[in-house]
Amino acid sequence: MLSELKVIFTKFPTFLNPEQQTPTRAQEVVLVREALEHAVLLAAANCNIDDFAQNFEILRVYYTDFKDEPKSERRLLILGLHLLRLLAMNETRAYHMELERIAVEDHDNMYIKDVVQLERYIMEGSYHKMLQARSKVPSAHYVPLMEMLLVTVRREVFKCATHAYEELSVEGARKLLMFDNTDDLRAFVEAEKERRGDEVMGWVLEGDKYKFVHNEDQDDRLPFATVISNNLGYANELQRIV
After folding, report:
1. Could you read off the pLDDT of 109-135 as tens digits, one per residue?
2. Model-level pTM?
3. Tally of CB atoms within 10 A around 28
4. C-beta separation of 116 from 99 below 8 A
């Protein structure tokens, strides 16, 4: 249906053309903007990253270039979701670039502020705080992307744990990967080993511990590696965890 609407929208004189003045300009802008907003929200609900990105890039024009029209009430919600999507994709550089594009006075808005705080928790390795934040999202629209972010963080922690440990107890791994029980942990580890294939160095279960194989030549470019090796999110708890 959205594809059909876009075909209709392209016939509007103002479509992606902020300089165009017509008697129905305001109605055209609002109609296109709201349709795109609903498309973005639907994509977020389904964690459809490609659809989200495509529709957001068109919607962005209506947020930034049609300045003479009243701002949308959903604008900051959508911008916050866009930031959260970038975090969930581990696109930290793009995240910071997009944050800079948002007016400073909007940074205190709950939709933006909460995502900024999430990014800080991740960079600090404060994953327990990130888990707590998951239950306090500013909108239900954030929940699917928050779950996606949690998976991303778990996968990066899983990958980087090889560089931080020689061995790790099953209970320590459960805490580190933020699972409520060891069954979910084991299922996740096996799924990740299958997904990553030969890339996985370690995570071999021996008794009640996971063993790791260190490869000094392996180049880990992911920013989480530094966080894990230096902080591990639980710097003061390591001895207790292991």
Report:
1. 999 999 999 999 988 888 888 888 888
2. 0.83
3. 21
4. yes
